[in-house]
Automatic annotation (TrEMBL):
Protein name (record): Beta-lactamase
Organism: Sphingomonas taxi
Pfam families from the UniProt entry: Lactamase_B, WHD_BLACT
Gene3D superfamilies: Ribonuclease Z/Hydroxyacylglutathione hydrolase-like (3.60.15.10), Winged helix-like DNA-binding domain superfamily/Winged helix DNA-binding domain (1.10.10.10)
Location of the Metallo-beta-lactamase domain: 30-202
SMART domains in the record: Lactamase_B
Taxonomy of the source species: Bacteria, Pseudomonadati, Pseudomonadota, Alphaproteobacteria, Sphingomonadales
PANTHER family from the UniProt entry: ENDORIBONUCLEASE LACTB2
Length: 285
């Protein structure tokens, strides 16, 4: 992302400006991309982490114009925390994804969630916020998280895809809030649309979205096939299965890979293709 450094607004099209937050990591790529939509008045999509310099950059882009809504695709800590200082500075309501509180026996699993996220208005499928010459319509895309929304900009046939479809990697699906079956259904849902371009939360804009979505569906089905082949050979624990499936993976990403494999296993279990016995998984076929 060196060509789009943090703190410098990039106009992607007349109605859309992107600002990259200074939070690069193995999970966020170059950082979280905040999108400012509109002209005479604005919406701010996924203002990102609560970083004072990033919020100040957003306020410079806003330049005193009315902000009709601060729009949140999902409440991960790299997407929603800056909504609060931005709302305090602009008076704009926080709208979008519903708050979710995940109960889990896995220590630290909720660390990615913004526990203080409290929207003024939750948007359901098909509901919109609008301004002068622009509309953002919510599209339910659960899977990465149970509350994930994408937002369509019908005036230019753009889709703000959040973390559901990204421009650099596939999403991490981490149970219990992440759900592989829902994720696959949400990808299928996007195939039925004719969006011109996706603006994701991380990575470059996607100018051939249908092609990418088909590839993502194929990738997940390939992973599912790997799992089924492995458990047909012998019962396996999650850790060993992940090691065999992700040869050469950056060690920092192994925990995320394990969560995605577990999401596949839970989906296959619901479909009665695998079963869990103690610490191992085995084929039910």
């Amino acid at each position: 992302m060196a060509e789009h450094p943090t703190g410098i607004p990039i106009q992607l099209e007349p109605l859309v400006t992107r600002v990259l937050a200074p939070n690069p990591s193995p999970y966020t790529y170059g950082g979280t991309q905040t999108h400012v939509v509109g002209g005479r008045d604005l919406a701010v999509i996924d203002p990102g982490p609560d970083d004072a310099a990033h919020v100040e950059t957003l306020l410079r882009v806003i330049a005193g114009r009315p902000v009709r809504a601060i729009v949140i695709t999902h409440h991960h800590r790299d997407h929603s925390p800056a909504s609060r200082p931005l709302a305090a500075a602009t008076g704009a309501p926080i709208v979008g994804a519903a708050p979710v509180h995940v109960a889990s026996e896995t220590p630290g699993l909720d660390a990615a969630f913004d526990a203080a996220y409290a929207p003024d208005r939750v948007l359901d499928e098909g509901e919109s916020v609008a301004g002068d010459g622009w509309t953002l319509t919510a599209l339910a895309t659960p899977g990465h998280t149970s509350n994930h929304l994408a937002f369509a900009l019908p005036e230019t046939k753009a889709l703000f895809s959040g973390d559901h479809v990204m421009g650099w990697a596939t999403s991490v699906i981490s149970p219990p809030d992440g759900d592989m079956g829902q994720y696959m259904a949400s990808l299928d849902k996007l195939l039925g649309r004719d969006d011109r371009i996706y603006y994701p939360g991380h990575g470059e804009a996607v100018d051939q979205p249908q092609r990418l979505v088909r590839g993502m569906l194929g990738h997940r089905k390939q992973r599912e096939g790997q799992i089924l082949r492995l458990v047909r050979e012998a019962p396996l624990a999650l850790e060993e299965m992940t090691r065999r499936m992700y040869v050469g993976l950056d060690p920092r990403l192994i925990p995320a890979a394990q969560r995605s494999v577990l999401a596949h296993l839970y989906d296959l279990q619901r479909r009665q293709r695998v079963s869990e016995e103690g610490d191992v998984w085995r084929s039910s076929e």
